[in-house]
Amino acid sequence: MRQLLWVWMLLMALAFVNDRCHCCLQEERSGLLEIKAWFGHASDGSYRLEDWDKEDLNCCNWDRVACDNTTNRVIQLDLSGVNYDALEDLYLNASLFLPFKELVTLELSSNQLVGGLKNQGSLLSILFSLHGN
């Protein structure tokens, strides 16, 4: 009976540890996958984001992504050169970056960005001022 109690306690502890995954937030992981899809739709550049995988729950370990160690929120995105060799210019869909509430650094250089979609002026100005830091 005592062994059964220990086994039960061990199983409960393991369930608690597995439930406490130190992963990025689902909203931000989904946002990153949307960015990857957007680059894939807009150009052939999504292959530069090929390790961004919906099966990997911890997007903090993905290339080009950095997260805060405490909150696990995305604080840095390096998207430079993802659209480098595209044949056409891109109009940025700035709403793709709305899920990232603690984003501090956004690198968008070498992507042939020529502007943004209509009705996103204020959001674009925030993004480009963020990019300039």
UniProtKB/TrEMBL annotation:
GO cellular component term, pick one: membrane
Domain Leucine-rich repeat-containing N-terminal plant-type residue range list: 26-68
Subcellular location(s) per record: Membrane
Pfam families reported in the protein's UniProt record: LRRNT_2
Keywords of the record: Glycoprotein, Leucine-rich repeat, Membrane, Receptor, Repeat, Signal, Transmembrane, Transmembrane helix
Signal peptide residues on this chain, from the entry's feature table: 1-19
Topology within the bilayer: Single-pass type I membrane protein
Stored InterPro entries: LRR_dom_sf (IPR032675), LRR_N_plant-typ (IPR013210), RLP23-like (IPR046956)
Main location class: membrane
Family annotation (SUPFAM superfamilies): L domain-like
Protein name as it appears in the record: Leucine-rich repeat-containing N-terminal plant-type domain-containing protein
Species for this entry: Salix brachista
